[in-house]
Amino acid sequence: MKKNILFLCTGNSCRSILAEVILNHVGKERFKAYSAGSFPTGKVNPDSLSVLEKHGLPITGLSSQSWHDFSNINFDLVITVCDNAAGEVCPLYLGKAIKAHWGIADPDKVVGENRESAFEKAFKQMELRIDKMLKLDELTQENLNQIGNTTP
């Protein structure tokens, strides 16, 4: 049986979207990934869509949604992906799921010529962490939080 995983952030337009798409692509046999925000922006960031397309991943049907939209799903795992180090407030999920934190800097905060590389960096960080998660023998809060300290 597939495990339901929710990637949670504040705006659900960049990092959580990247995580949802990557995991649904590489882990589709074991996981069904969703993404949501505590205060969704209402639209997926176009630069997130560009980096996903660049890596040959599907972008159809993606949307910025509230975590309330998934109240009917029992999640096995909830991973927050906002960056506490930058002073972002990560939403607190109150369900019974295993909870972990994988802070990644918000690429949408980068302006100018480094913006594309910021989205690429966020993608690579998420891809690496998901790859490590797929290799775990046991999904525990401790194991998942350790992955959150991994950088490419």
Commentary on this structure:
The protein is α/β, with parallel strands linked by helices and about 150 residues long. The protein has one domain: Response regulator (Rossmann fold), CATH 3.40.50.2300. It has four helices and four strands. The protein has helices at about 15-25, 45-55, 115-135, 140-145; strands spanning about 5-10, 30-35, 75-80, 100. Strands 2-1-3-4 form a four-stranded parallel β-sheet. Strand 1 (about 5-10), helix 1 (about 15-25) and strand 2 form a beta-alpha-beta unit. Helix 1 packs across helix 3. The mean pLDDT is about 90.
Keywords, separated by commas or semicolons:
single chain, 152 residues, Rossmann fold, 4 helices, globular
Brief account:
Helix content is 32%, strand content 14%. With 152 residues, the protein is of the alpha/beta class.
